[in-house]
User: Fold this.
Amino acid sequence: MQRAKNNYTVNATPTMQVLTEQQIEAIYYAALAVLSETGVRVYDKEGWDLAYQGGAVVEDVQADNALVKMPSWMVDKARSTLPQRIRVIGPAGHDGVRKYKMDLYKNTMYFGTGSDTPFTIDPYTQVRRRAVYKDVKNLAKLAEALPNVDFFMSLGITQDTAVGTYDRWQYLAMLESTTKPINITAVDIEGLKDQLEMAYIRLGGKEEWKKAPCFSLYNEPVSPLSHSEEVIQKLLFCADHDIPIVYTPCPLAGATSPVTLAGTMVQALTESLFGIVLSQLRKPGTEVIIGGLMSAMDMQTAVYPYGSPEMALLSAGYTEITKWLRVPEYETAGCSDTKCFDEQACMEAAINISTAAMIGGNMIHDIGYIEQGLCSSPHMLVASDEIISRAKRILRGIPVDADTQALDVLDEVGPGGHFLGHDHTFNRFKTENWRSALTDRQVYADWEASGSKNYQQRVHERMVEILEAETEPLLDEKMYQELRRICELADARHTDEELDVQMFV
Assistant:
């Protein structure tokens, strides 16, 4: 671990570093070699035609796919038009102000949830069950109230809706409960179109979207080195309609990528670079956020672990690569492999949140995940909010100036005195020291008198308090019905579908 010097002008903090600049360069040039020599498989004709027109070599053309090889100069050209700063601002609240925003560049840092879990932990019974519309709405309400959750993903699949339209219903549920920026998913290109229309309605028109989009799209190529028709279509649509796109591969070391962490990062970067180049060929200036939800397969259980040290290391290393590239970055933290909210959940979340904070990622998602991303936990979400708060306090560092050195205070109090009654203490203690309503610091007798509650109980009470608080609806009836109609029209196009819940396992 290396430590950077503090800079109190920008309040930079001691940070960890897992890759040297030479190692970053080695991984980058290795990715360029893979992209130009091995190539990637593209399953969309419009995609490989666009790549060909831009200078790529297209080989082994099949009925539905082709091998695309991009020379390094195409990457250089694409990087020259790729935005280094991306802004996403949530819709207005009751005051008419769009106040929750993400400015993604360099060292800015925002935490948010994961998405599309087939299961959730019931907030009251604490029983694992399949997620429904109400769960997404409740989890969005929690995120709205938690000060350290900056953006929201659905944290549940609405399995009480049609299989081909759940993405629209998830977006509606989120719009009902949060004004924070949203990172959406889309079943297909039609789902993306519908959600964009819903966003225009929520913002009050396309012109407001032009000021700043209110959502970004999560888009995932298929590891290893493949880009599906659906993924390419979404990428091109985002470029055409000024939608920030998260282009993030999810390789699993030892399964869908090389077992070595460096090899996995090379592959992930290759997959992301292809998305960058294609987006800029379609429309120079298209806003792209790259990342890599990467981990190493557990060879004993064959699962994709979310709480492993390897995932934290891969996220950290990839963050350093994206900073070197000056591309906004998407990484993972606040998640666990445990099956319930327990000590393991808190331990794994604390470690990966702290690692992500120290390395300084831009858009850090998956807060609230347990069970390898198959299940959402409202308790985990509330606890992670506090963990993030702790990490942010550490990142503030220790400013050293005339006021904080307190020489005049030391002189006034003098030897043998105390500082409890001094104005300096009164004026500074609330901002100098971290405090939390969830962490217990009482003496034993007071703790016992207040009910002897453990951390799990305190988290539960805070969660219930938020969920049961009366809040004014974010959508008036007219807007709600407009948005709901888009979902219902989508349902009408999918009347023959039956929800196969097994597809979400």
